[in-house]
Amino acid sequence: MPEAARTPLLEVRDLSVAFRTEDGLVRAVDGVSLSVAPGEVVGIVGESGSGKTVSMLAVMRLIRDPKAVIEGHVFHRGWDLLQLSSNEIRSVRGAEIAMVFQDPMTSLTPVYTVGWQIAEQLREHEPMSKKAARARTVELLAEVGISSPNRRIDDFPHQFSGGMRQRVMIAMALSCNPSLLIADEPTTALDLTIQAQILELMKRLQRDHGSSIILITHDMGAVADLAERVIVMYAGRIVEEGPRAAVFRDPQHPYTWGLLGSIPRVDRPRVRRLAAIPGAPPSPLDLRAGCPFEPRCQHRFDRCATRPELLERVAAGRKDACHLDPAVRPALRQASLRGENVREAE
After folding, report:
1. Average pLDDT of the chain?
2. How far is Cα 167 from Cα 329, in angstroms, rounded to an integer?
3. How far is residue 79 from each of residues 37, 211, 268, measured CA to CA in Å?
């Protein structure tokens, strides 16, 4: 493989995000390191509050809270985004890295037409006339499946359905052909048919434009459909990482077992009750010094009092942060799916 193909498009090193509050320091992201190759689709999954969105907002430099403390490095095309000036990062946002936010209704300005908002971004990053920007906007709306784009270009956000607004956001994000698209829960609050259409649209656009995609979601089905590599986050940390097929076929971390076990499977016998992860995620004000998942883990033992490092343990390209012996994990995982606690039985 050529050297250029191995060079990451985006490389995040030891990223931490904390917020000063009256109750103390809230650590939302704790030492996250990841990379995205050119043209790669990476899915980041985890429960609400696991740090998925906050980490990507930090990458985009969109956390402006004066009480926020952001540390680490974010490299894109050789530049550390966290060290750029305000004007320099503005030239990167939209042009090089674009983001589709979770709620398109609050992301689009209600008093401007969707066409004006897309054309504004085009003219901000590319030298073109209003006429050329409008023509390009019509092309983008058609590309994302908006019918009658010549007419809908002058409509306001409230005149679109939720699925159509999400298509408008995708059109805006792709308007300058960015090298990296960050999609934050792009199918939230959409019905199943529209979800499938949005995922198919993203696959087609990624294939046509060649952009890398980071898909932030709690929907494991969306990850299975779109992502090539999966990153599992819990309590602000990465607990597992690997190729999609490997993570779904042979997950290594008990938290990933819980996420996958809570999904009904049509290729397996019907179960009376789906497995569930007991308890709730920890408060970021009270993160444990050891494994953050230990209070909810059925297979915890003494060593879990120390923090496990994210290491390659079972194969190249597979990483997990768990002290369990890899040799016993398959049996423990099957016990988890059956709702048993092997260690208590022993």
Report:
1. 88
2. 42
3. 16, 18, 48
240, HSE (Cβ side, Cα atoms, 13 Å): 26
Per-residue pLDDT at 344 exceeds 80:
no
Please state, in angstroms and rounded to a whole number, the distance separating the CA atoms of residues 32 and 236: 8
Q: Residue 198: how many CA atoms within 13 Å on its side-chain side? A: 28
Task: Give me the mean pLDDT over the 15-29 stretch.
Answer: 92
Do residues 236 and 29 touch, judged by C-beta distance below 8 A?
yes
Question: What mean pLDDT comes out for the span 192-221?
Answer: 85
Give the H/E segment covering residue 100: strand 97-100
Strands 319-320 and 237-243: antiparallel
H helices present in the chain, as ranges: 3-6, 52-59, 86-92, 104-107, 114-125, 130-143, 149-152, 162-174, 192-209, 220-226, 244-249, 254-261, 329-337, 342-345
* pLDDT greater than 90 at residue 201: no
3-state secondary structure of 209: helix
Share of the chain above pLDDT 90, in %: 58
* Strand 68-76, strand 180-184: pairing: unpaired
Return d(Cα 131, Cα 331) in angstroms, integer. Answer: 64
Give the integer Cα–Cα distance in Å for 319 and 314: 8
Residue in 279, 286, 284, 288 with CA at minimum distance from that of residue 308? 288
Which residues are 237's β-sheet partners? Answer: 234
User: For the chain, how far is it from start to end, CA to CA, in angstroms?
Assistant: 48
Asked if 56 and 216 touch (Cβ cutoff 8 Å), the reply is yes
pLDDT, tens only, 250-265: 999 999 998 888 776 6
0.85 exceeded by the pTM? yes
CB-based contact 232:241 (threshold 8 Å):
yes
Closest CA to 119 of 109, 111, 130, 110: 130
Specify whether the backbone of 117 is left (phi greater than 0), alpha (psi in -120 to 50) or beta.
alpha
- Could you tell me if 133 and 119 are in contact, meaning their C-beta atoms sit under 8 angstroms apart? yes
